[in-house]
Amino acid sequence: MRKIIDVLLILGFLAVDFFFFHDVFKPGESTSFAQYLTGALSLLVFVVCGQSLLKSTVLVKK
């Protein structure tokens, strides 16, 4: 279940980032502070969810 949530978070933030930043390089377009915050948050989500997905050891309750 955790892996599904991680994948959905990553895909969701990729979609949001695409909609916010797809026109960043167009002349005359400016990026707002909220867009920068969303980008920073998405980087954090990518790192945390990526670590969770790539974790090689399984924690076993003792």
Summed up:
With 62 residues, the chain is an all-alpha fold. 68% of the residues lie in helices and 0% in strands. The chain has helices spanning 2-21, 33-54.
Provide structural commentary:
By secondary structure, this protein is mainly alpha-helical. It is built from 2 helices and no strands. The two termini are about 20 Å apart.
Features:
mainly alpha; 0% strand; 62 residues
Helical run tally = 2
Regions with little confidence, pLDDT below 50 for 5+ residues: none
Shape: elongated
Summarize the biggest pleated sheet: none
Strand percentage lies at: under 5%
Please state the CA-atom Rg, rounded to the nearest Å: 16 Å
Order of helices and strands: HH
**Pairing-aware structural class of the strands and helices?**
mainly alpha
Number of DSSP strand runs: 0
Q: How much helix is in the residues?
A: 55-70%
How widely separated are the two ends?
A: 21 Å
Mean pLDDT: 82
Helix and strand layout, with pairings?
Blueprint: H1 2-21, H2 33-54
Helix pairs in contact: 1-2
